[in-house]
Design a protein that fits this description.
Layout: H1 12-31, H2 38-44, H3 50-62, H4 64-78, H5 80-90, H6 92-99, H7 104-114, H8 120-131, H9 137-167, H10 172-194, H11 218-233, H12 235-244, H13 250-281, H14 291-322, H15 327-339, H16 341-355, H17 358-376, H18 385-413, H19 418-440, H20 445-466, H21 482-492
Helix pairs in contact: 1-8, 1-9, 1-10, 3-7, 3-12, 3-14, 3-19, 4-5, 4-8, 4-19, 5-8, 5-10, 6-7, 6-10, 8-9, 8-19, 9-10, 9-15, 9-16, 9-18, 11-13, 12-13, 14-15, 14-18, 14-19, 14-20, 15-18, 16-17, 16-18, 17-18, 17-20
């Protein structure tokens, strides 16, 4: 696929790509509409503190974790068109609740519910995979995600201006957030009627069971259980943080911990229910796939997208306080981190397509992340601002490129499990964000960047050992196994 192909708007797959990245762009705009308005929020009300906003930043990514798992399952059952449209409309409600919340608790709860909007990413990944062939999927997924992710940069660049100059007054930030919610709901209705789940005649390959990911061996089932526990266990950190800041008493926290444990047990039971019968019967050789590759990509998304979510949440205030900038100027500069998405993420997918070795590209990007954040850890007020911005852009190039490379691999691992694998890897991005943002409450910005650099290096090591090149990564069509054909026949009768 050539880069110029994205301008061929009459092609059905290109039209679908543009409709879908715009939907994702809007969700990211709404998802990150708080960070650039943080200073305005603190000035307009006297009952908020910087610690509250740090907690809200963690809440802003928390429920995306279970939401991406649930949405991944819903995708395999209902298809991406329905799921994306419903998500766009329903998530406008907590966005409006946050815009007009009058207490700390109202803001916290609405932000927590709104964090489910982050699941939109895996919906578009699935939709794009249904429209494009394996040999072109890297660039298509990278373009979708890169231009969609730019929504966070657009929010940082425009929301302070909208709040201050379009609406003004103490409630300007409220109306700026509400406006983004109304636009999202309207686009959700439009998306329902504007697109289909793949070209005419597309076979929507579904897993045998949507309640848990299928694996190929008993050892892989154990690994799946071990990689499932952190997806929900990480929420215990959020509960603890909420309790420490006085939003929750000990009894409420105990109930929340019990719910988390119950959910983990339920997920383990589902994994056993789905996989034990399959493994006892025996998995045909042509239907097996390496779960180690899924685990490796979980780690990459923890280290790249988790880092992006965490850094986007704190970068405006970092630049504002370190170089004594205005909120608007800091927002514009901080947006440079996400601005790179427009080029770097599609490039990551394109390089993954063109190099003929997706594993090598993934390793290169993860090493670049480790080096970039280590350099950001050295930045301080004595550095020229232009150098700090250049290093931020350099780091972002590798972060976004790594994200594109991750989802250039996922659709080729196991076609009928794309929704669930995307959901799991995507959820690990939010596990990383919650982990990093929690650490940020205990360290300064420079230490924070060094910790993220360490995460990138650890992921590089995991990929070096576990990640395998998908066998059909550059084919004209996705590989269809004997089990795929059997499931397709069963669906016809």
């Amino acid at each position: 696929m050539q880069v110029a192909a994205v301008f061929k708007f009459k092609n059905p797959e290109i039209k679908a790509l543009h409709l879908t990245w715009i939907a994702f762009f809007i969700t990211f705009y709404v998802w990150f509409n708080m960070a650039p308005l943080a200073s305005s929020m603190l000035k307009s009300v006297d009952w908020l503190t910087p610690e509250d906003l740090k907690l809200f930043a963690i809440c802003n990514v928390a429920l995306t974790i279970p939401a991406r798992i649930l949405v991944g399952m819903a995708l395999d059952r209902f298809g991406p068109r329905r799921v994306f449209s419903v998500l766009l409309v329903t998530m406008a409600l907590p966005a409006l609740a946050f815009a007009f919340g009058e207490t700390r608790t109202q803001l916290l709860v609405s932000r927590l519910v709104l964090s489910s909007i982050g699941a939109s990413f895996v919906v578009g990944i699935h939709m794009t995979a249904m429209w494009f062939k394996p040999k072109d999927i890297g660039f298509a997924e990278g373009f979708y995600a890169g231009w969609g992710n730019f929504g966070s940069a657009a929010a940082a660049m425009t929301l302070p201006t909208i709040a201050i100059h379009m609406y003004g007054g103490d409630d300007g930030w409220r109306w700026a957030i509400a406006q983004s919610a109304f636009v999202m709901a309207a686009y959700g209705v439009y998306y329902w009627f504007a697109i289909t789940d793949g070209p005419v005649g597309t076979v929507h390959r579904k897993p045998r069971k949507a309640s848990a990911l299928e694996v190929s061996s008993w050892g892989d089932m154990v690994k799946l259980i071990l990689w499932t526990i952190p997806l929900f266990g990480i929420l215990a950190i959020l509960v603890w943080r909420i309790q420490v800041l006085g939003y929750l008493d000990s009894n409420g926290a105990a109930i929340a911990y019990a719910v988390i444990v119950a959910v983990i047990i339920y997920q383990i039971v589902q994994i056993l229910r789905v996989n034990v019968p399959i493994l006892k019967k025996g998995v045909p050789e042509d239907d097996k796939y390496p779960f180690n590759s899924v685990a490796a990509l979980n780690s990459t998304y923890f280290a790249n997208f988790g880092a992006e979510l965490a850094v986007v949440s704190m970068l405006p205030m970092f630049f504002e306080s370190t170089w004594n900038l205005s909120a608007t100027a800091a927002g514009l500069i901080a947006a440079s981190f996400a601005f790179v998405n427009l080029v770097a993420r599609p490039m990551g997918g394109l390089v993954s397509d063109r190099m003929g070795n997706r594993r090598f590209v993934m390793l290169s990007y993860m090493l670049g992340i480790a080096i970039g954040f280590a350099l950001m850890g050295l930045m301080n007020s004595s550095w020229p601002l232009i150098i700090a911005v250049a290093i931020t852009v350099f780091t972002s190039f590798f972060v976004q490129g790594a994200e594109g490379a991750t989802f250039g691999i996922i659709p080729s691992i196991k076609r009928r499990l794309t929704g669930q694998i995307s959901g799991m890897a995507g959820a690990y991005g939010n596990v990383g964000a919650v982990f990093y943002l929690t650490i940020y409450t205990f360290v300064d910005a420079n230490q924070f960047f060094f910790i993220i650099a360490a995460g990138g290096f650890i992921s590089w090591l995991i990929c070096l050992v576990w990640l395998k090149e998908p066998e059909s990564a550059f084919s004209d069509e996705y590989f269809v196994s004997s089990v795929d054909r059997q499931i397709e026949q069963e669906q016809h009768y």
